[in-house]
Amino acid sequence: MIQMLITLGLLLHINLLADLVADGIKAYDKGNKQQALKLWTKACNSGDMDGCSNLGLLYDDGIGVKQDKIKAKEFYTKACNGGKMRSCSNLGVLYETGDGIEQDKMKAKELYTKACDGGEMRSCSNLGVLYETGDGIKQDKTQAKALYDKACKGGEMRSCSNLGLLYDDGNGVKQNKNKAKEFYTKACDGGHMSGCYNLGFLYDDGNGLRQDKTKAKAFYTKACDGGNIGGCYNLGILYFNGDGVRQDKTKAGELFAKACDAGNIGGCYNLGILYFNGDGVKQDKSKAKELFGKACDGGSMGGCKNYKILN
């Protein structure tokens, strides 16, 4: 009977902590970040690892508190050690990027491995990137492929896209454009816009499968609408040339402007050309000069050359 009372007491304690975390989530969703902070702090201090994990996220992003990567690291570490694989993954990101703490790629690898083994697919994907690039660890493209495959099957769409790139380029695997298309399609259907962009490029280029500019336009449009700036730029090229679409240089200018505003140097350069020639936009050589200067600052030799001419 004594043992039963102890067990029931423990269950009651666990349920109370879970309620604190749940109430914190409700407060957070209603915009009361301070109340969420208070509840999760109480839960974490009482040993609830979900509370610690959530605190790490607040300090990591500076939500409701002053951003503090050191505190984020402390809470992620506590939660990771307590079995929360998401926190192991988040801690790995801090170590990989050196964001507010000392960069340590081997430590990142260790944490990603632990989280991946624990079912955290984002960590499998991150670990795959480390192995593919040899960034701070010994390069191993076979291992990268295995990790991307695991993560892709686990619903991590970025890894499906990365796996497609391996097959597209023959990078560590035998080149297979149809396989690349298969994985890009899965990534795109799953909402990963790089997959849509890459799929559009396959159809645009027609290298290894039948060229189809109409399909290229459709996938570039989806990628652009989803925030992939490369998709906007390439879609602008199609409209500029009338390639698979009705030529529309005004539309091309809008897409180049969107790409340029997001830091795409090719977009700035091409938009400069449009303004210089008055092609699809009202001619404005001062605007063209400004855009060529921006392209030059981003490393475009053509932008530098044209800026000097106009200057």
Structural account:
This protein is an all-alpha fold. Among the domains are: 28-146, Tetratricopeptide repeat domain (Serine Threonine Protein Phosphatase 5, Tetratricopeptide repeat); 248-311, Serine Threonine Protein Phosphatase 5, Tetratricopeptide repeat. The protein is built from 17 helices and no strands. The protein has helices spanning 2-29, 33-45, 49-61, 69-81, 85-97, 105-117, 121-133, 141-153, 157-169, 177-189, 193-205, 213-225, 229-241, 249-261, 265-277, 285-297, 301-310. The longest helix has 28 residues, at 2-29. The radius of gyration is 25 Å and the shape is globular.
Distance between the termini: 91 Å
Percentage of β-strand residues: under 5%
* Average pLDDT number: 92
Quote the CATH topology of the domain at 28-146: Serine Threonine Protein Phosphatase 5, Tetratricopeptide repeat
Overall geometry comes to globular
Would you state the CATH class of the domain at 28-146? Answer: Mainly Alpha
Second rung of CATH, namely the architecture of the domain at 28-146: Alpha Horseshoe
Unreliable residue runs: 10-14
Q: Which percent bin holds the helix content?
A: over 70%
| Main β sheet profile | none
Continuous helix count: 17
Order of helices and strands: HHHHHHHHHHHHHHHHH
CATH superfamily of the domain at 28-146: Tetratricopeptide repeat domain
Number of strands: 0
